[in-house]
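Human:
Focus on the backbone:
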Amino acid sequence: MHSSLFCIVSCLAASSSAGILTRREAKTPEKFCNVVFNTDACRKAGWSHVWDSLTSHGVSGFIAFTLQSLDKKDHYNENDGSPCPYTPELEAARYPIVMDPRDTDAAIEWLQSDHPPGYLELFNEPDFSCADATPLTPPAESAQNLTKLINSAPSTQLISPVPAYTGSDWLKEFDGNCTGCMDKIPIIGAHVYDVDPMGAIGQITDLHDKWPDKRIWVTELSPTTTGDNCDFDAAGEANWMKTVVTQIKALGYVEKIFWNTGTWGVLKGNPDVCQPSLTNEDGSPTALLSTYQEVCA
């Protein structure tokens, strides 16, 4: 789901209960810890320093809400309309998204080119539209639109469409309308938000129960993107991160996580409450980024 804070992000998902795992050690998968760059990322005063801060603390890659590179997408442009300052290094670390049916033809062309992407996520929150930024796309319509694309990606690993509501039946309905499609999608994506750590872990374990043979990427993760029902101070936010990320690693089937957000943002006008930012306005690391590095080690 999307919030007014981050322009294209996910709001609080429904909580489900699950027992916290007790395993104390878990090997971190390669390139496990990543971030989300929301549509205001390039407009931050310290944008030119953000990636150095993140990578020096163990962040490997990022998701942004575009099929194209950030400098070619209007909603990532700077305030004066000039292209987002961008580098080949950043582009190499990006995981692209087919945001909605308007991107499908361009994605097929890319997949059939001499340089297809290594990974490609399909449809961002087709069950939710924030300020009409993306259209609502029901499962049957999505299946019809994506069938050709899914069959055009022999060398690209596809991430499933990612509903806003992790516990919904959207993806199962998509599977029922797209014969053989899920056989060609090795990764299930999830947007996980819940101020209760057990609820966040429960969303993931429930998803694994539905798709036991798939790898899982949590492509958006934090307690909340709206501030609703969240009163964490800095220590509380760090504790949530430590608890949830440690438990995710212990599950053994989550391949990547993407913390939301990699750049500075404020929830409900208060920078000291439920603050998820990994970098400051000037691009320097926040204390939470050090926690992310610690828990991802």
Observations:
- Strands lie at 33-37, 62-64, 94-95, 97-98, 119-122, 157-159, 187-193, 215-222, 254-259.
- The chain has a mean pLDDT of 91.
- The CA atoms of residues 19 and 198 lie 6 Å apart.
